[in-house]
Amino acid sequence: MLPDDSPTENKGQPGLVPAALSGLCPCCRGKTLFAAPAALANECVACGLDIRSLERGGRFVGVVTMLLALALIIAALGVDEWLRPPLWLSFAFWAPVTVVGVIFALRFYKTMWVYHQYEESQP
Ligand SMILES: [Zn+2]
To answer: Taking the domains of the chain in order of start, what are their residue ranges?
Structure first.
């Protein structure tokens, strides 16, 4: 009979998706990575990790956003051709989808980048 497995033994990286969704700090796992829905904090308020300096070089963010917006616009035009929904319906559907899609893509991208940089900076 084994004693209970200690869940605190789990030292692996959290999955990127939960990390991006809740904005987990790569260092202390606190939910401190984002100051706004799609903006990184300057530093972790819990452990003082310099997030700003890890973000350096992540300037493809604009390109990612534009590509995603472009993909969504093309998708929107495709649906328009196909279903010919009334304009208000297109707008009611695509406005939130675009906002949520862009925010999520940015969070995911930035989290991925910060985690990558954090690992690089470890000895
Ligand atoms: Zn931290």
So the answer is: 14-121
